[in-house]
Design goal:
- The chain contains 29 helices and four strands.
- By secondary structure, it is mainly α.
- A four-stranded mixed beta sheet has the order 1-2-4-3, covered by helices on one side.
- Helices cover 64% and strands 3% of the residues.
- The two termini are 38 Å apart.
Length: 654
Amino acid sequence: MPANTALVVLVVSLLMLVLPGLLTAAAFGLRGWLAAATAPLLTYGIVGAAGPVLPAIGILWSPAAFAAVSLAFSAVVAGARLGVRRVQRDRTAAPVVDRSPNHWAATHHAGIAAAVLLAAAVGFVVTVQATREFTAVPQVWDSVFHSNAIRYIADSGQSNPDALRNLNDPVVASYYYPNAFHVLAATVVMVTGADVPTVITTGVALFVPMLAVGAVALIRSCGGRPAFAFATAVLSCAFTALPWDLLPWGTLLPFITALTLMAAFLAIAATILRREQYSIVLPIALGLAGIGLLALHPSVAVAVVICGVALVIQTWLQRRPSIRDLTAVVVTVAAAGLLGLPLLLASLGAASSADYDWPAVFSPADALGQLFFLSHDQRFPQYWLVLLVAVGLVSHRVIRPMIWLVAAGIFFAGLFVLAAAYEGEIVSLLTRAWWNDRWRFAALWSVAAMFLAGAGAVEIHDGLLNLLNRVKVRRRAAVGGRGRLVLSSAVLAAVLAGVWASTGGLYHERNETRLAQAFTDGPTVSTAERRAFDELARLVPKGQLVMNDSYDGSALMWALDDVRPVFASPVIAPQELVTMPPERRVLFDSFDQIDTMPAVRRAVEHLGIRYVIVCDGIIGPARGHGPGMQSVEAAKSLRLVFENDAARIYEIAS
């Protein structure tokens, strides 16, 4: 793939992610860092609100439909805000400009913007190197589903979340999977014509800037210092647990996206609680942002509620509760219900599904050590980040406006220990919303740890600056206001330069190595297997199903070459076998008995299958081919038409 193609996809992805939400943020009256941080989240809110509705009224999803819906949202919001302003006849509907007791001058904003760009550049380099310049195919279990979901939406325009049942469970009436991530990625595919892996890998490069800008907006909304925002933005790319660990673990793309936008949601909530005058506009914006999180991943929406409760408690400890706080909650919930009722109902229905229980693999002491030393499933801790986190915890002066977030982080740390080291019904109940997954809890803790590390860097800066000021006083050297700013900035830059040098460039090599584990050449799809997919694309008529093994990576023929497989993602047995249609079940269990089982032959003829592919690579944790694909080469009804060192294609005899 030419380098300029990846660049075009990256630019289009960024514009699709930011522009619709930025227009809506401006209509809500949001400005500055708050608008920049919430723009992607509001974009996903628009997708989450409109995605289920358009197909229901006969409109397929397309770039034109997305543009029209985005403009309509912005126009309605702007009109509603103007109406509120005229009715209330006060300034409550005026633009929401970030205000803080710690003054942020233009030079502060410029420095913080530079910090965001530095973190984004590090994240970009990590992604480019790990994905071989955006050409690699994601190899982990969940990536097959995500890739084919994107391709399906791009092909069909079906943006309703329950339409994703057509990948593997076409007869399951109650099927639901949050699809805002997939719908927006499919829009990029529609606009650029790029293959799905390129869209996915370029999207990975946007995780760090979303995280960094959200952190800045949250610190500003909570009244934090500019130095705190600067340091946190710089360090946002360094933590292995977020986002880098979550890609090799399961390629949890919607979850990572939602997690990087969590701070943006909380920034709106903090702004509402800190404003002296009540405005109905901000709670509506918060409701739309909540729909964005829910449409990305409901478990992050649950995490945000926990963080929000902690924020409210700290706010009420600092001032008396007021009726406007309750009113804001009511308006937020009402706005979310009005804008995303189909999504909310589907999410509630899915909440009653069976839970997951990953085995406990650590002792409690090991789990605590891995979490707080930032070494989950890694050989070595991230020592320098641990030092900064410890300083931030012990000193707690800089982090004081965000103690609520630290408290929520400690809560998620406790859930990590439960998921990693304990079993039982209580553990299952407490961790169910996050699939009992210690990796997700490690990432949630890392959100709080990132702010603690930023606070720790500023505490060290303050100590050094006080020491220098004492030396100057002894020498009777006076420093003016501009000189103090220059000196303070130089000291903070020196502290972070020391962190950069000590960590080898903010642990970029460590994170690159970790991310690259999700983008190897096989075993899910190797270069040789991709050549077999290319051959299938030449042999198979458009829309015709190809028989495949759900465990050998061949399902990615759809995302890569637009050839549709019978099994579009790995089958999770036994849960999915119970609801699998009889024809597909017989193919899954017994396709290699095509010579002797009439039921197999009937299923093949009814589904119009003419070709079969078998690949050598197996998706972990599967240990081999599915039961119906283990003896395909012995079937006399199959004629070999293509073979290389990694895959074989057969034609079914009539």
